[in-house]
Amino acid sequence: MPAITADTLTLPRIAAATPSQTQRPVRSITTGPRGYEGEGFPVVRAFAGVSARDLDPFIHMDQMGEIDYEPGEPRGTDWHPHRGFETVTYMIDGRFAHQDSHGGGGLITDGATQWMTAGSGILHIETPPAELVERGGLFHGIQLWVNLPRADKFATPRYQSIEGDEVTLLSSDDGGALLRVIAGDIDGRGGPGATHTPITLAHTTIQPGARLDIPWNRDFNALVYVLSGRGAVGPVSHPVEQGQLAVLGPGDRITVAAQANQDSNRPALEVLLLGGRPIREPVFQYGPFVMNSKSEVVQAFEDFQAGRFGAVPPDALMPHRPSAS
């Protein structure tokens, strides 16, 4: 990790803080529990124990892996429905195949992002490709659920494929950190992801002993999730490590620093930066549906059972089972 790298000395630099700007303080730090998703792939439940109000407009996030699979071990999901939100799958290392009932799909690999707007209803599958199942290999990624406001709950489903070389690359003011802006903007430079809900999503690598200090929209919430390594967040340097989420309070800038000493297999601090404009609407979630009320979730189940989310294509991608030895 990471899959997409660059020489920070050649990239646009983020402007240093001005005297009028304030750092966002840390409001809470939580550690995500480990679990399993789909057909049995390991995840860290990154948002567990955090209030919905602090997360808004985000609903759910899993860190998938990081794991080096043996042959026959990789697992994914089978076909399943969604309505009322967007799924964002960011692959740091490895490969994941996607297909949906509205014609979207492809292979997500090494630094690429799949952005699927479920909107009014969609069926999809995410599964490791056959060669990964047969041979094993490294698998590491993130799946994030972004809520849609009431006005967009029934938007037409949409699929975006963002390749790793399409993200916007930036450097910290001292060159010690690399940022990959996937969606939204940082310091006036925008990422390629098109969103219904205004958000910023970026993956950053901070070298040992280096410090990242970036501007952040005051109207957005701010979350810092540690993918790997050890460091500190905020104006009083709250310590954080792999699998922890920091929720930040109000302010103009986010600061994250990497410890000078990192583990040999974790050479730098890797963090995901997330924020968005809160929707502040009622949320009723049940399984794969995120709506505003219980009655709307019941309707989603009825529409799914009636086939209104589209159909599994005749040439559908299916979970690959390893060959018998």
How confident overall, as mean pLDDT?
92
Order of helices and strands: EEEHEEEEEEEHEEEEEEEEEEEEEEEEH
CATH superfamily: Jelly Rolls
Instruction: Kindly estimate the percentage of residues that lie in beta strands according to DSSP.
Output: 35-45%
Write down the CATH topology.
Jelly Rolls
Number of domains: 1
Strand order across the biggest sheet?
Answer: 1-22-19-24-17-14-13
Tally the helices: what do you get? 3
The general outline is globular
End-to-end CA span: 32 Å
CATH architecture: Sandwich
Structural class: mainly beta
Cofactor: Fe cation
Organism: Mycolicibacterium flavescens (Mycobacterium flavescens)
Keywords: Iron, Metal-binding
GO molecular function: metal ion binding
